[in-house]
Structures are given as C-alpha cells and as structure tokens.
C-alpha cells in the first residue's frame, strides 16, 4: 500500500499529492522548505529534485529510524567485537 501526502509545490504554487514510496531522498533547505528527490534515469545524477514549502520535520515522522554518526560508530564497534 502506497503512502500519499499533500505538500505545497514551490514551482506550481499550489498543493499537490505525492507518493512517498517514490521519494528516494529528503533534504531540508537552509531558507526553509524541503527538497524531495525522485529517481530519474534520464536526469543527470539519476534523480530529479522537487521543492516544497513544507517543513523537513513533517517528513521525519515517516522515517522508520533516524541514524546519526554515533549510531554508525556503535554499529561498527559491535561488528568488530563480533
């Protein structure tokens, strides 16, 4: 089952509904808003950017688990100890 959410498109200047299952990366913007990246084999770098006015924190609720540098260090230490 796909997850659809409504966001506010910067380019279209209106609300749009996107399929979160198709998003491969979500990045906060320094001046506010968020850029969503979709896979696109025809694009340079293999992805297409889509900018929305919605806050990055709105998308964090959909993350199963956030991982930071400390989490990675702990995992590496555990692997070396095994």
Mean pLDDT across every amino acid position:
90
Strand content: 35-45%
**Residue ranges: pLDDT <50 for 5 or more in a row?**
none
Principal-axes geometry comes out as: elongated
**Major β-sheet strand ordering:** 3-4-5
The tally of strands reads 5
Helix/strand-derived category reads alpha+beta
Q: Give the SSE string.
A: EEEEEHH
Radius of gyration: 16 Å
Count of separate structural domains: 1
Please give the largest β-sheet.
3 strands, antiparallel
Separate helix tally = 2
Notes on the protein architecture:
This protein has 82 residues and is of the alpha+beta class. It has one domain. It is 22% helix and 37% strand. It contains 2 helices and 5 strands, in the order βββββαα. It has helices spanning 56-60, 69-81; strands at 4-9, 14-19, 23-28, 34-39, 47-52. The strands form 2 sheets. The protein has a 3-stranded antiparallel β-sheet, with no helix packed on it. The protein is elongated. The mean pLDDT is 90.
Topology of this protein?
Blueprint: E1 4-9, E2 14-19, E3 23-28, E4 34-39, E5 47-52, H1 56-60, H2 69-81
Antiparallel strand pairs: 1-2, 3-4, 4-5
Question: Which characteristics define this entry?
Answer:
two-stranded antiparallel ribbon; alpha+beta; three-stranded antiparallel sheet; 2 helices
Describe what is shown at a glance.
This protein has 82 residues and is of the alpha+beta class. Helices cover 22% and strands 37% of the residues.
